[in-house]
Amino acid sequence: MELKVRLCVLLLALSVCVTLQARAHEEDEEEDVNVEDDMANLADEEMLDEDGEVDVEEEGKPTPVAAAPTVTYKAPEPKGEHFFAESFDKGTLDGWVVSQAKKDSIDEEIAKYDGQWEVEEMKETKLPGDKGLVLKSRAKHHAISALLLRPFTFDTKPLIVQYEVNFQNGIDCGGAYVKLLSQSADLNLDEFLDKTPYTIMFGPDKCGEDYKLHFIFRHKNPKTGEFEEKHAKKPDADLRTYFTDKKTHIYSLVLNPDNSFEILIDQTVVNSGNLLNDMTPAVNPTSEIEDPDDRKPEDWDERPKIQDPDAVKPEDWDEDAPAKISDEDAVKPDGWLDDELEYIGDPDAVKPEDWDEDMDGEWEAPQVPNPACESAPGCGKWERPMIDNPNYKGKWKPPMIDNPNYQGVWKPRKIPNPDYFEDLHPFRMTPVSAVGLELWSMTSDIFFDNFFITSDRSVAEKWAEDGWGLKKAAEGAAEVPGTFHFCLCVCEHSVEEYVHLLTVFL
C-alpha cells in the first residue's frame, strides 16, 4: 500500500513537472525576443559588468529547496444539526464533570475514581494547537462525563457517534470506549460510575492479546422491564494495528431506524449487521423452550449400536496368547561381552570425607558407563528381542450391530416460552442525555478528541474531515517529508532524469 501511495505522488509530480517545463520553454522563447530590451534595462540599472555581460550565479551553487508542506490546525466547527460536539481546543474541561464516586465492594485504595484528566496536546503532536482530553494515570479508575445539548430520542432518525483515540504509549490492558448515559431523573454526573445506567457502550478495548471493538446496547424487556446487554459480533478485521501504531484513529457507530448498524474505523466499515439478527444474546427469545419438568423414560434406548447377541467366540480363539514373544530367529551379535556389566562403579570416585556410614550407610561409587562396552555391540546377559505375536488375538468380543430398538437421543419436549416477547424495533432504545468515559487502564496518556453525536451522516463526515482529516494529513506529512522534497527538487531535472530518479526511488 505504501508503495502505491509513493507511486501516485511521484506520478503526480511528473505530470506537474512536465507542465512546468513546457511553460518554462514557452517563456524562454518569449524572453529571447526581448533580450536586447532586457539588456538595455539592465544597463540602466547598472547591472552590467565592464564587458557588457550580465553577471550570473555560479553554476555550482545549489538551488534553495522549498520546505515540505505543513498542515495548519484549525478547530473543527459543526456544520449542521448535532447533539454534542467537543474538540477541547478551548484548553479547559468546561462542560465536563469529573466523577467523585467510589466503587462498591472493593478495596478503598482502588475504589475511588481518582484518575487524572488533562486537556493538552499530544506528546509528539504533528499538529500544534490541537488539544484533546488525556487520561493521565495508570492503574486508576477514571470517570468523566458531559450532558448533551439535548437528549437524543430513538425514533425516526439515525444515531451517529464518533470520536478519536490515540494510544500514545501503546496499550497493555485498558479500555478507551465511550458510554451514552441513559436519560433519567436520577442521573447524577458527579456520581458517575460503572453501575450508572447506559444505553450504548462503544469503542476499543484491549487486554493481553485480546483486541476488541465493543458495541453493546442495553435492551429493555417489554414484559419484565429488566435490561439485558446485547453484544455485537466481533469484527472480522485485524484490530491490532489500531492499538499499536500510535496514530490517531476515528471510531464511528451508525445506528439506523431500520435496526441496521455500521461500525467504522478511519471512515472504513469494519463491522455491520442488524440488531435483530447479529447480537448476542438475541434481542427476542425463542417462542418455545424445553420443558424443564420433562424426564427421560427409564426404557428409552439411546444406543445406536449394540453387541451381536447371536455371535459366538470361535473355538480356536486363544485369549491367553501373549501380545509379544521372543524372536526365535535372532542371533547374539559377535563380540557381545557377556561377562561385562553395562555400568560399573566410577574408579576415580572418592568417598567424601564427611561420609558417615552409621548415618549414610555403606558408601558406593556412582555408576558410570563401562568403557569396555564402548566398542562392543553390547554387555551383560544377552536376551532375544521381543516381537509381535502373529497368533495374538486378545480378548474376544462380539461384533457390533445396529440396535433394532434405537430411539435416538432423548430431548425434553417443547413447550410455549412463558417469557416470550417479540420486539421488532430494538432501535427504539432508552433516550440518551449524556456522554461519558468510565475507564480503567494500565497505560497512561490515552488521548481522546473530537467527540460528535448527530443524526446527519454528512454533518458527521464533515466534522471528521475537519478534525481527524487534519491529523491524518499532518501525520502523513511527518512520515514522508522526503517525498515532498523529492517532488520539488525533481522539477529542476529533465523528464529523462526524473524517470531515472523515479526508478531509484521505487
UniProtKB/TrEMBL annotation:
This is Calnexin. Residues 293-332 have a biased composition (Basic and acidic residues). Residues 336-345, 354-363 have a biased composition (Acidic residues). It comes from Silurus asotus (Amur catfish). Residues 274-287 have a biased composition (Polar residues). Keywords: Acetylation, Calcium, Chaperone, Disulfide bond, Endoplasmic reticulum, Lectin, Lipoprotein, Membrane, Metal-binding, Mitochondrion, Palmitate, Phosphoprotein, Repeat, Signal, Transmembrane, Transmembrane helix, Ubl conjugation. PANTHER family: CALNEXIN (PTHR11073:SF11), CALRETICULIN AND CALNEXIN (PTHR11073). Belongs to the calreticulin family. PROSITE patterns: CALRETICULIN_1, CALRETICULIN_2, CALRETICULIN_REPEAT. The lineage of its organism: Eukaryota, Metazoa, Chordata, Craniata, Vertebrata. Residues 274-381 are annotated as: Disordered. SUPFAM superfamilies: Concanavalin A-like lectins/glucanases, P-domain of calnexin/calreticulin.
